[in-house]
User: What shape does this take?
Amino acid sequence: MNIIEAENLSYRYPASDKAILDGLTLTIEKGDFLAIVGNNGCGKSTFCKTLNGLIPHFITGEFKGSVKINGHDTKTMTVSELAHMVGYVYQDFDNQIVRPTVLDDASYACLNYAYSDYLSRGKEALKLCGLQNKEKDYVFELSGGQTHLLALAGALALNPEVLILDEPIAQLDPGHADLIYGILKELNEVHGKTIIVIEHHSEYIAEYCHHVVLLKDGKCAFKLPTKEALNHVEELKEANIFVPQVTRVAYALKSRGYNWDRQLPISRDEGLEYFKGMDFWPNEKPASFKRGEVIVDFDHVILGYRTMSKKRHVVFKDLNLKIYEGDRLAIIGSNGAGKTSLLKMLVGLSKPLSGSLKIMGKDTSAYKPQDFAEYVSLVMQNPEQMFIADSIASDIAFAMKARNISDYEEKTAELLEAFELTALQNRDGRLLSGGQMRRASLAIGVALNPEILLLDEPTANLDMATRKEIMDTLSRMQDIIKTAVIATHDMQLVAEWANRIVVLHDGEVIADGDRDSIFADQRVIEEIGIRPPAVFDLAKELKADNRIYTVEEFVKQARV
Assistant: This one.
C-alpha cells in the first residue's frame, strides 16, 4: 500500500527562474525505510517540505502536480492537519526546540492541539527516544545527540505515520549516530512508522535503509532496493554521492579484473567475504614529523559553569595539554567531551576556574580575548555566523581594516585568489553554497595571519563532494598556517589530515598520538566509541598489521 504518492510534481521558488522540482513522480510504500540522495540543490529538502504541507501553504511559489498522503491531497489540507500524518525533524533541529524543559518541549505540540493527555503523549515519545530520565532537565543542558532526540520526540508525540529526518547524524559522534538510527529502526520495524531520511552517509544507508531514491534535475532518477542502488557507482558519483568505502574499493579493483562478475559489496561483512584471501603489500613508512616549540600550554586546567539548578557542571577537571608549532592537531571525543569548550578557551571566550592556560608564553588570565586575536583565530562550525558585511571581500578585509593594516586591500586580493573566491568576491557570504561558505570562512579566519587556526567541525553538514573540496583546501593551507587545531567527528578528515590526535573523555585527555597509535588502541575505540574510517577496519580484518586509511591506499596496497 502506498502511503505517499507524488505525481508530476513541479515547484519553483519565487526568486528563481528555474523549477527545483520538475515533473517528479514517486510513490513510497507504507512501512518503508527510505533514503533520499542527490547533490546540493537537487530538491531533496524541497520535496520533503511538500509532504508536510510547508510547500505550498507556508512557503509560496509556483506549485504544480499533486502530492497525496494516505490518499489525501496536501493542497486540500492544512499544515496543522498534515502534522498528524507527517512528522519532520529538520537539519537545523535546534530551531524546533521551543520550551525550557525536556517534557515541556516534547508535549508542546499536543498541548497546542488541546489534547487532555498531552503530558502522557510527551512522556511516551521521550520513552521511545530514550529520554525518559531527562524529563525535568533544561534543554540547554542536553548534549547535541540528546537535543536531536528531543526534536524527534516532539515530532513523535503527535503519532504521525511518516517521519522525515533531514541529515539526522550530520553533527553527531558515531555513538550518538548509531543511537539515532537504532531508534529509527525500532520505530520502523516495531511501531510501523514509515521513515524517510535525507542522508549523505552511505554506510548508514547501506545498514538501515530498504530503498534509495536518487533525485536529479528535479526528477526521480531512480528508486531501487538499497544494494542495487549503491551498485550504481558512476551514476551516484555524478550526483556527488560517494557509495560506501567497501563498495568504492571493490569497484576500483573490478576494473583490474578482480571479481569482475560479482555484485559489489555494500557492508563490512559483505566486504570480508568479497575480499577473502586477498594479500597486501607492506605498509608504507609514515612521513616523519618534527615538533616545534610549545605555543599553547594547558596546565592542570579546571573549567566549569553553574547550571540553572545551581549545580556546577565540570567540563575539564584536570586538563593537561601542550600544543606545538607545526601541529595539525585533531581533537576528538563524543558529544559533550569538551571539544568546543577547549576551542573557546583558546580564543579567550572561557577562562579556567583554576590552573593556567598560556598562549605564546602569555597567561590568558591576565589578558582580554582581543589581545590574542593576532595569535589565534577561530573558524566557527556554522560559517554564516562569520559573515557581517554584504560581500565576502568586505568580510575578509574587515579585521585587517579594523587594525589599520595598510596593505589590507592587497592581502584581501591574495586571500580571494588563494581560496578560489575571486569570482565570488562581491557575493553575500550567506547566499553562497555550502562549500563556498566554508572556503570564505577559512579566508576570514586566516586574514590576520594567526599563529594558530582553530576549526570547529569544518566538514559538518556537507555532502561528500563539498567535504572533499574543503579537505583539499585544508591541505593547501599548510603553506599559510603553521599550526591548526580541528575539533571534529569526521574520522576520515582526522585520518587524512592530522599529524597528531588528542582524545578527550570525561574532562581529561585519555590518548595523544598519531593515527596509527590512536586507531589501533582498542581500549580507546571502545571507551569513546570512535569509529575509524570503514576502509581501515576492513583492511585490518583482512590482515592484522594493515594500516590503510583511504580507498586509494587500499587499492594501491592490494595484491591483485
